[in-house]
Amino acid sequence: MSVNRTMMQYFEWYLANDGLWWKRCAAKAENLNEVGITDVWLPPAYKGMNQEDVGYGVYDLYDLGEFDQKGTVRTKYGTKEEYLEAIRAFHSAGIRVFADIVLNHRMGADEVENVTAVSDLEEDRTKQVDGEHTVRAWSKFTFPGRKGMYSSFIWDHSCFSGTDYDDITRDEGLVFRFAGKQWKEDTDPEKGNFDYLMGMNVDFDNPAVCEEIRKWLLWYIRETGLDGLRLDAVKHISFHFYKELLRSVREELGAEVPAVGEYWNGDVGRLLYYLDEVEGEMKLFDVSLHYNFFNASQAGGEYDLCRIFDNTLVRERPDHAVTFVDNHDTQYGQSLQSFVADWFKPLAYAMILLRENGIPCVFYSDYYGNPVQDRPLVPNLGKMIKIRRGYAYGEQEDYFDDPHLIGWVRRGTKDHPDSGLAVVLSNAGEGEKRMFMGKGHAGITFRDALGNCPDPVVIDKEGYGTFCTKAGDVSIWVHEVGFEYLVVTE
């Protein structure tokens, strides 16, 4: 019997730097399985430029908290052995582990080098502003603490195409492109060309670099036993690189190795173009849907809910969409801040968890709350995840016929007993919808699992029921039988 897959991003930006994260992950594995989580996306596990690093200021991909480098053995999250134990705990609980793969750049080099470069404008990388000159770049990575274990590869300026920091002039507003190098044209067109993002920009035209990365990824998967990949910042990397890398690694391992890429662009056309360029070798996070949720949460009753899925990846390419409400980058104070308003989050999660298309990804802070930023957990989120696993099956029919009150039904399947559900949500006043559950549900009593509407609904002999919700809220109607299943212990 197939079960709906549900991913959780099991971290957020503001975790404490106490080295206990991997232990906390291991301790929660069984609970996550009980709720209905089938996959977890863990933060970058390798050594960053300092111990505070969240994981995206990558220093050494081979150091998973094993070597004394950058003033620390452990990473922000713990040691290598603790990381491996967390993976084993998730596997014991039947949960797949996705690792965060950050390949675009390196930071925290061990030595400086004098490099010939030209300057491009930071806001338009197609505009060169001077001729060749010498910059002092932090571009040599020797990894003295690791001493060549696992790989003897040394990264120097030949492995990179540019940087934004010259230790001589310390000029701002410029990007320094190394002589003889070009920004890759098959990247996102923002800023004229968005090959360069930060730090030392990895040169994917260098065959030795590409081979070293391929060897590392094979080592990483074999060393840890991880199941899948979350690919960071793919719009800044040659579009063909990941297509070739994923194919090569899957062929050598003889394994599926599922992958989901982060292409941060709200224009669904850019997402579709990228998927075509990589020939469908990965899924993508549905950034366009996230922005629809954010805009709807800001507009309140002025937003037309019938258009909530317009111009989204989950509508245009559902088999390649990973849907989400928020993540670590959209949190308050982060570079992509666009946090969905609290009142709208239960509605948004119903729309990613209880529909047939897309694989939903639940954000850690939405599930547990975030005391650092004084953010509450999303009410009933654990219950909605359980409802997805137990009830969200079968044919779907939408009732998107009112700009402020929409709904849909899932009619269930025989191999999931008592499955099927009805959802009604509102961004304005309370209301109700008469929806067709199917004659197979005739005489069955449905109740609102979230408790917003206390009166039961009995499906009539024609298969219809009239389902309600409160103003600015969501109601999820399921079979009365098995309500004890929906108790959630966090």
How would you characterize this protein structure?
The protein is α/β, with parallel strands linked by helices and 490 residues long. It has three domains: 281 residues, Glycosidases (TIM Barrel, Alpha-Beta Barrel), CATH 3.20.20; 101 residues, Elongation Factor Tu (Ef-tu), domain 3, CATH 2.40.30; 91 residues, Immunoglobulin-like. 23% of the residues lie in helices and 22% in strands. The strands form five sheets. It has an eight-stranded parallel beta barrel. It has a six-stranded antiparallel β-sheet with strand order 6-11-9-10-7-8, with no helix packed on it. The chain has a six-stranded antiparallel β-sheet with strand order 17-18-19-24-21-22. Strand 13, helix 5 and strand 14 form a beta-alpha-beta unit. The mean pLDDT is 96.
- List how many beta strands DSSP finds: 24
The fraction of residues in strands falls at 15-25%
Mean pLDDT rating: 96
* Unreliable runs: none
Number of domains: 3
Helix share bin = 10-25%
CATH topology tier name of the largest domain: TIM Barrel
**Physical arrangement of strands within the biggest beta sheet:** 1-2-5-12-13-14-15-16
Shape: elongated
CATH architecture of the largest domain: Alpha-Beta Barrel
Intertermini distance: 26 Å
Class per helix and strand makeup: alpha/beta
Q: Nearest-angstrom radius of gyration?
A: 24 Å
Superfamily at the CATH H level of the largest domain?
A: Glycosidases
The CATH class of the largest domain is: Alpha Beta
